[in-house]
């Protein structure tokens, strides 16, 4: 038995799943990720490059340990569809056939979202050594990888005695890509990677400038570069489109594809389906042209919530000058509350996913969903039967807090932006809009915007949980000792904290919110490594602007007047400033200079006359 790690190649089009799988596997010392690829052509080129490395000179005997160390690759892990559910045959099967012909000793493990018998039979006929679901447990997946790499075969268990019917795949492999197609694929992949990396850097710079005193020019320059890079990405997609399989390959594999779609012949018992039941909306999604399956959406959701959970383990200090209700909590209580909301939000998404809620119903149910999330969090954070003894009477805490639902909704819950858009994006793969551009599920811009919306929602729910507590039990000693930060234990500090919150809500209602509406933006609280910060995102708010009245409307009129007068006023001030500078330097300055010069000349003449007079007296 050798201690050399198993050398693996990951072939997966979804970067989120590939990243998660790579991160999970790298923690095992006996597994090593040698290479990654996102398409059949890239995978074949990468594997060929790895396998062409010389193992040992010919006719040179090697020990078992030395041969294992010198072996370039031990296993290829690939997705069945590779994001192309309508390809014929599926890309994962194409890769299996190519590897079976070129490297017959290299085992292949196929991952899929379903394990219907037809797919398993196609995988076996293509030469794969293993087949398992993407939703398998992490530890179980590692065991499968080790088994297949060791030369064993792993297939899904047969259910209800249904035998997997062998299928005949075309003997001739699909037409190989030409060298020109391979070069084009290489250019496309490298170009998109560079553009995505540059876009990620610019997004980080814009986030850093959100709360800094930088000038608008810095933001405008970065936003201009961002638009240029997005245009460049569109041009790359247009000039270097993905290389499709030649029509010959589709015709050669038509018989196998028809078997995979139609199932067993007439008269044969249909094999039972092993996939979980789906609601009609999700069934339509799984077969849509986008190729996004419910399993893919779950992976996106898992990646989002894992990223937010990691942020919760860092600093949760409020970096803004705006008071938040959760600022009164100790750090550990703040982290506990936010983590609890995150878990309940994920559970709520799962509950909605398997219900009969339709996309058009999300907007109507938005308030109910947020209210349920707030209610469940209060029950679990304080305890359903938690009570306090105040003035000799026992007071149930949760009942008192839940009675404030209307004021909490008006002050906080109803003002949380983007909730319906986020739910529709994660539940029904509705593209999300970022800066007037739509992005599909799993794209970097969509993931970044989803993190922003969900983090703001989580922080707002946490504030809503503490909001009624400060109204009813702010100065109760048991509450202070159990929840509050040690710097806010005195009655004076608590009252000062509540006054700051009250003043903030008034200023936000009178000035802050009308300003954000006039600027077509939302101001959100998000998590960062240093703590909680505030950012602004663009969103059209024309309807809200037309509904403003009274003082809120006056604020927008003042802003509009300022924007209209500001350029002319700046020009006038610049002109007056130039005149003042000219007067001080050219008129007054020169006059003072002439006066000073005359004084100096007079003093010099006097000194010279005095000296001449003394010399004349000496000569006498």
The biggest beta sheet is recorded as: 5 strands, parallel
C-alpha Rg, in Å? 35 Å
Gross morphology: extended
Number of helices: 22
Distance between the termini: 124 Å
Structural class by secondary-structure content: alpha/beta
Approximately what portion of the residues adopt beta-strand conformation? 5-15%
Percent of residues in helical segments? 55-70%
Question: Count the strands?
Answer: 11
Give the strand order of the largest sheet, numbering strands 1, 2, ... along the chain.
2-1-3-4-5
Mean pLDDT: 76
The poorly predicted ranges are 54-70, 158-177, 243-291
Count of separate structural domains? 3
Summarize the structure in words.
By secondary structure, the chain is α/β, with parallel strands linked by helices. It has 22 helices and 11 strands. It has a 5-stranded parallel sheet, sandwiched between helices. Strands 6-7 form a two-stranded antiparallel ribbon. A hairpin with a 2-residue loop joins strand 8 and strand 9. Helix 7 packs antiparallel against helix 8. The N and C termini lie far apart (124 Å).
For the structure shown, list the relevant keywords.
620 residues, 3 domains, 5-stranded parallel β-sheet, two-stranded antiparallel ribbon, 9% strand
Layout of helices and strands, plus pairs?
Blueprint: E1 6-11, H1 15-25, E2 31-37, H2 40-51, H3 64-70, E3 75-79, H4 91-102, E4 108-112, H5 117-126, E5 130-133, H6 138-149, H7 179-209, H8 216-239, H9 247-252, H10 254-262, H11 280-286, H12 294-312, H13 331-353, H14 362-382, E6 387-390, E7 393-396, H15 397-402, H16 405-411, H17 419-428, E8 432-434, E9 437-439, H18 444-472, H19 477-483, H20 491-518, E10 521-527, E11 532-538, H21 542-546, H22 550-619
Parallel strand pairs: 1-2, 1-3, 3-4, 4-5
Antiparallel strand pairs: 6-7, 8-9, 10-11
Helix pairs in contact: 7-8, 12-13, 12-18, 13-14, 13-18, 14-18, 20-22
């Amino acid at each position: 038995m050798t201690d050399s790690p198993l050398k693996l190649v990951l072939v997966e089009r979804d970067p989120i799943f590939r990243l998660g799988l790579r991160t999970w596997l790298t923690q095992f010392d006996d597994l090593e990720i040698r290479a990654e690829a996102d398409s059949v052509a890239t995978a074949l080129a990468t594997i060929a490059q790895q396998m062409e490395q010389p193992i040992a000179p010919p006719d040179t005997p090697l020990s078992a340990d030395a041969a294992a160390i010198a072996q370039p690759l031990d296993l290829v892990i690939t997705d069945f569809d590779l994001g192309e559910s309508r390809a014929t045959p599926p890309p994962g099967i194409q890769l299996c056939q190519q590897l079976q012909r070129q490297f017959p000793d290299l085992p292949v493990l196929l991952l899929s979202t379903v394990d219907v018998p037809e797919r398993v039979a196609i995988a076996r006929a293509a030469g794969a050594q293993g087949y398992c679901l993407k939703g398998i447990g992490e530890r179980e997946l590692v065991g499968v990888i080790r088994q297949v790499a060791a030369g064993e075969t792993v297939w899904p268990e047969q259910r209800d005695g249904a035998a997997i019917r062998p299928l005949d795949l075309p003997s001739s492999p699909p037409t190989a890509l030409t060298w020109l197609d391979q070069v084009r694929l290489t250019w496309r992949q490298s170009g998109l990677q560079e553009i995505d990396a540059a876009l990620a850097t610019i997004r980080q710079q814009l986030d850093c400038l959100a709360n800094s005193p930088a000038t608008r020019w810095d933001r405008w320059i970065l936003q201009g570069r961002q638009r240029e890079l997005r245009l460049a990405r569109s041009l790359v997609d247009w000039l270097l489109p993905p290389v499709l399989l030649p029509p010959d390959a589709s015709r050669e594999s038509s018989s196998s594809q028809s078997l995979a779609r139609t199932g067993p012949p007439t008269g044969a018992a249909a094999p039972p389906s092993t996939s979980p039941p789906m609601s009609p909306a999700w069934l339509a999604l799984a077969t849509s042209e986008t190729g996004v399956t419910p399993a893919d959406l779950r992976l996106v959701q898992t990646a989002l919530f894992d990223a937010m959970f990691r942020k919760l383990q860092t600093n949760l200090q409020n970096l803004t000058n705006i008071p938040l209700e959760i600022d009164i909590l100790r750090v550990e209580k703040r982290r506990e509350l936010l983590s609890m909301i995150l878990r309940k939000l994920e559970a709520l998404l799962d509950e909605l996913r398997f219900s009969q809620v339709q996309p058009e119903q999300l907007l109507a149910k938005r308030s109910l969903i947020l209210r349920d999330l707030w209610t469940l969090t209060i029950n679990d954070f304080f305890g359903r039967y938690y009570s306090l003894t105040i003035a000799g009477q026992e007071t149930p805490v949760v009942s008192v807090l839940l009675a404030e639902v209307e004021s909490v909704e008006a002050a906080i819950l109803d003002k949380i932006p983007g909730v319906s858009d986020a739910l529709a994006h994660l539940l029904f793969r509705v593209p999300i809009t970022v800066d007037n551009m739509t992005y599909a599920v799993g794209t970097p811009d969509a993931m970044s915007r989803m993190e922003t919306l969900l983090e703001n929602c989580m922080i707002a729910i946490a504030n809503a949980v503490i909001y009624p507590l400060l109204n009813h039990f702010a100065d109760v000693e048991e509450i202070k000792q159990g929840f509050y930060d040690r710097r806010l234990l005195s009655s004076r500090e608590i009252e000062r904290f509540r006054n700051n919150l009250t003043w903030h809500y008034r200023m936000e209602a009178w000035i802050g919110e009308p300003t954000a509406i006039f600027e077509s933006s939302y101001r959100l609280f998000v998590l960062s490594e240093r703590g909680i910060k505030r950012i602004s995102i663009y969103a059209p708010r024309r309807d809200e602007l037309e509904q403003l009245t009274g003082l809120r409307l006056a604020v927008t009129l003042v802003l509009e007047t300022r924007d209209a007068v500001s350029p002319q006023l700046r020009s006038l001030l610049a002109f007056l400033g130039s005149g003042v500078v000219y007067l001080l330097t050219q008129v007054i300055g020169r006059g003072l200079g002439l006066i000073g010069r005359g004084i100096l000349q007079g003093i010099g003449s006097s000194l010279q006359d005095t000296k001449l007079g003394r010399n004349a007296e000496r000569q006498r």
